[in-house]
Amino acid sequence: MTVLPWAIPAVIAAVIITAVVVVVVQARNGNLAKALIGAAAPLTTDAQGQSIPPWIAGVTGVPGNQRQARDITALEQRSYRGHDVACMRLRVIDRRSSSDTYRRSYVTIVMLRLRGSWPQLSISPEGAIASMFKNVGTHEHVIGWPPFDNTYIVKSSDPGFAQAMFAPAYAPRYLHEDLRGFAWTIDRFSLSTLRYANISATEVDALTDKLIAVAENIPPDVKRFHEAQSEETRPLGGYPPGWNADSA
Known about the structure:
By secondary structure, the chain is α+β, with helices and mostly antiparallel strands. The chain is built from eight helices and five strands. The protein has one domain. Helices cover 29% and strands 26% of the residues. Strands 1, 2, 3, 4 and 5 form a five-stranded antiparallel sheet that branches. A hairpin with a 2-residue loop joins β1 and β2. The chain is globular and about 45 Å long.
């Protein structure tokens, strides 16, 4: 049987396009990790088998998927500058490698506890990789101030929350040298950031200082609103219609 010269490349292209479409569709209904491989089981115990507090276990930025084994090698909770903070160190073992060449990587997640209940929000600097996936998953929010919008990608489960967090009086703070380019996430009960490395205690303190700076830059009305909320009392969909940091 004669195979036309263009047939094989055409089939390969069709397979690739189909795979991309499936990933994008699934990612819009969940997250990218789940779309690519499948979400990992939630972390519920620390290295000693003790239960992890909900404000730590609820961090959704923990990397991993069904093909990866994750071990918490250390979990430190402490009071720092008047805040409840934690540092979780993970070892991620990639099962996709052959049995004798497992690929191991390390992740450090630094967390600061927030009072009340908060919507999900993440902010990361614009970049080649970030821009590639900016339209996948949670909708990107444009704040409306070009210097900020050209620097960061903001995604949130609640558009009103994103707009209130980066109101005109507060957005410029994230362009100052100490916070410019700093990526962080708010998720229910915590503010967190991570590094794909087993970083030193000094670096952990530096990241914790940045998280505290972010917490101190949350508009007071936004902070009061969410510190008074719980999972049971927070309005479905977030803020009341028309609510913003200036009108609260």
